[in-house]
Amino acid sequence: MADTPPETPKRRSGKKRLIFVVILILVTAAALAVGISLNLTLKDDEDDTASVPVKTARFLVNCHPDNDASKSRCEERGCIWVERTDADKKPKCSFPEAYGYKMAGDPEEHAHGVKVMLTRIDTPPLYGMTPYINLTVAVEFHTDKRLRIKIMPTDVHRFEIPEEAINITSPSQPPSNETRLYDVTFQTDPVFGLSVTRRSTNATIFNTSLPGLAFYPQLLQVSVLLQNSYVYGFGEHKHMSFRHDMNYRRWSIFTRDEAPVHDWNLYGAQPVYMNVEDEGKANLVFLKNSNALEVFLQPDPSITFRSIGGVLDFYVFLGDSPGEAVSLYTKAVGQPVLPPYWALGYQLSRWGYTNISDMWMVINRTRAAQIPYDVQWADIDSLFKQFIFTYDRSEWAGMPDLIQDLHDHHQHFIIIVDPGVGANQTIIAQAKNNSGPEYNMYEDGEQAGIFVKDANGDTLIGEVWPGLTAYPDFTNQSVVDWYEKYVRFYREHENITVDALWIDMNEPSSFVPGSIHGCNRTTWDYPPYVPQILGADPDGKMFDKTMCMTAQQAWGQHYDVHSLYAHAMAMRTDEVLKRVFPGKRPWTMTRSNFAGTGHYATKWMGDNRSWWSQMHLSIIGIMEYSLFGFSFNGADICGFWRETTYEMCLRWHQLGAFYPFARNHNAKGPGETTDFKHQDPGAFDQRFIDIVKQPLMTRYRLLPYLYTLLYKAHLEGDTVMRPLMFDFPADLKARDVDRQFLLGSALLISPVLEPNVTNVEAYFPKARWYEYNTGEEVTSVGQTNNLYTPLEKFNLHLRGGHVIPWQTPALTTYESRKKDMGLIVALDENWKAQGELFLDDGESDVNDTSYSTISFQMEKAGEMKIIPKKIDYSPSEPLQFETIEIYGLSALPQSVFVDGVLHSQQNIRYFNKVVQIIGLQWSVLGSHNITWSVY
């Protein structure tokens, strides 16, 4: 049962209050022209003074989340202490009801929204800081489904994320009052509150009427009431469930080089959440703030945001469904990048190839095993002394020839690029001997002035894999020419003709805290309040495993832009690759990220473990990043750290074959003589190879469908790997499913996630579902079914109502794209289906004249039309639809007409409860019609 939305908090007073609705009169001709109606609800308060007696609040907002919380410290803050048992998760110290700000005067309308001035209620300060007395709340109506709420000090400039990083433009014309989906109301008593509600359902979208609004130089806090507890998002963390636990959980957001193993802040910073409303509609909220922050999830249900810098700049998106909410968000921050087609293939990587012979061994045995395989990756092993854009000409002699061999087999090669540039002069001299005197990355960077500077204006030196390390300032546009020079050096001088770049360690990571000289004890490196981030305990420092917060970058002080470092690196890498490969579609894979990074790079889930539990966590993580605008994402198949097992690696391939990004990657191990064993399929026995081939070949067969999904994500901001509740948002049980997932709307994957298990409890929402391999229809829907899943079996189901394009698989995407194609028609309860196919050359820029789209429409039972929607791309070798497979017919059709001609009965089969119509020989780019009848 959905949670009941909470009431708006009311001031408890003996005085009689009059609550009335004030509809503001438009005060300017411009406002009259656009017809703004705010429907403001104001609570009148007879006492106009800013000082209000302390009263206990209905909602418990933690006033003292620090480890040293005590009754005396709590009361010094003007907050309320309640003794509780250790088992009680409620905060002992909470803000009183009248803690925050009050309105100073009436709201002021303008053409694009409304502005409210606030003044602080007189209460003791927090953490010894001087609060801002006056705040401005600016509400902007951007579209019918989007608004912005910005809280900032009045007449005081503070850091804001630069438009170059994320530019969410305000439309020139605001939406009309008649078409907006939302109303904005204000509360005046006992504290200021702003509430956004959905007009059609009166659902609470965003309500700040809780106590504790605080604004200090290094502490910003606001709490938000929601309609219900169906909350998803926030990252990057190891979340044990896709739906958030709202029982006083706390999550910090600050990019950090930390594997997805513990409950800390991890690689990315994603201050984004979704709330699925009672009726199945959804809203998504983005806090545009790059400072270290944390969120407290409370069972009211509510969320408290605490940031240590910037401003509180919220963007609220109202979708008619979860998918639409994500689409609205990604269209604002940037739709996901479309990877090249070859990137959809199966890929192999390892940190721990001992030399080039080791890599050759893996390549050759993978080919010999006839495993489909498109991309080979190289980690830092191949670099000379871990200096980027080099290769070790001793242990990796012949590397250009290896890459040429990959290219000759229509395979691809990717190298890792860490941001750290080696600054040790001794090793620099050795690198020049290895790669030639032209290799001057550090000297050129110093001359160009593109490295991050310390507080004194000198190049900050940390320590990463190359030892002493300087960090390029990717927020500086001047870094692009320097960066491009060394990508070209690598390809043209070193002859390492890399096809894409893998940017890693870009949180940014450092093996020494701050710098080789440490950090001065400043209020930036040791703030008055420190979120619960990795490395902050016990002395409250911000710079563990990264650079000093006082470091200087073009976009601002590192204190403000730390979590934007990887975002900037992804932007510059994308720009450089577009220069290096003009007219081609660049591909960058990143570890660290921020909101909007998915527009420039794709993402993988980092250094996971070879633990069974990590398989489940990978599903949660990838689905969360779908919310954040990353459509092409995956986790290291078989795990990165530790050694996998036979069964785990096999089951993980059955799962990972259906990740959008499918790469097997593992670590070198803890020592020189104790490397973790190889885990590519060829490292196992023939039985393993035979079993793993099945899901991998199925992936390659379904690549046209997957590629079409990725195109739609790029075009419209759709999700690819998504939770069941995206397609079944009104199904309350589906909202909690996170051990299964959908690829698009048509494919349901229900993997085995534990050892020694041959049965999977799989939930099937109400629809028609078919087992992919057998054609069997699932007879019990709207409930959980027990699926028998022995080791050689994987669970893939088709959803009725969809037409899925496929292609005969081969061992590379290059060869697959030349094969005949076919269609799966999975009939819904009305015997209908529809689908789409996107075609292009797989690598050129996507523009209006470079691709073709084909629509499959079955609007009445027994008749399907193939309709070319746009034909601007023709394959060099003509493609044909050869076969149509129909799921859901109970008998063989008695007559089939293909483009009006009776089809030979010999070309109609009934196999495994699937009707196959073969011998079509249809041009993929042509218009066609097929009808059938069952007597």
Write up this protein.
The protein is an alpha+beta fold and 935 residues long. It has three domains: 299 residues, Immunoglobulin-like (Sandwich), CATH 2.60.40; 187 residues, Glycosidases (TIM Barrel, Alpha-Beta Barrel); 216 residues, Immunoglobulin-like (Sandwich). It is globular, with a radius of gyration of 29 Å.
Can you give keywords for this protein?
935 residues; 53 strands; Immunoglobulin-like; 3 domains; TIM Barrel; single chain; alpha+beta; 18% helix
Estimate the global geometry from the Cα principal axes. globular
Low-pLDDT stretches are 1-54
Q: Strand fraction band? A: 25-35%
The tally of helices reads 16
What's the helix and strand layout?
Elements: E1 19-22, H1 29-34, E2 40-43, H2 71-76, E3 80-81, E4 93-94, E5 101-103, E6 108-110, E7 113-120, E8 134-143, E9 146-153, E10 182-187, E11 193-198, E12 204-207, E13 214-216, E14 219-225, E15 231-235, E16 249-253, E17 270-276, E18 282-287, E19 293-298, E20 302-307, E21 312-319, H3 322-333, E22 347-350, H4 356-368, E23 375-378, H5 399-408, E24 412-417, E25 421-422, H6 425-435, H7 441-448, E26 461-464, E27 467-470, H8 479-493, E28 500-503, E29 552-553, E30 556-557, H9 558-561, H10 565-580, E31 588-590, E32 602-604, H11 612-627, E33 633-634, H12 646-656, E34 663-666, H13 686-701, H14 703-716, E35 721-722, H15 724-727, E36 741-743, E37 747-749, E38 759-764, E39 769-771, E40 783-788, E41 796-799, E42 802-807, H16 813-816, E43 821-826, E44 833-839, E45 852-860, E46 863-871, E47 880-887, E48 895-898, E49 901-902, E50 908-911, E51 914-917, E52 922-923, E53 928-933
Parallel strand pairs: 22-23, 22-34, 23-24, 24-28, 28-31, 31-32, 32-33, 43-47
Antiparallel strand pairs: 1-2, 3-4, 5-7, 6-7, 7-8, 8-9, 9-21, 10-11, 11-12, 13-14, 14-20, 15-17, 16-19, 17-18, 18-21, 19-20, 25-27, 26-27, 29-30, 35-36, 36-37, 37-41, 38-40, 39-41, 42-43, 44-45, 45-46, 46-53, 47-51, 47-52, 48-49, 48-53, 50-51
Helix pairs in contact: 8-10, 12-13
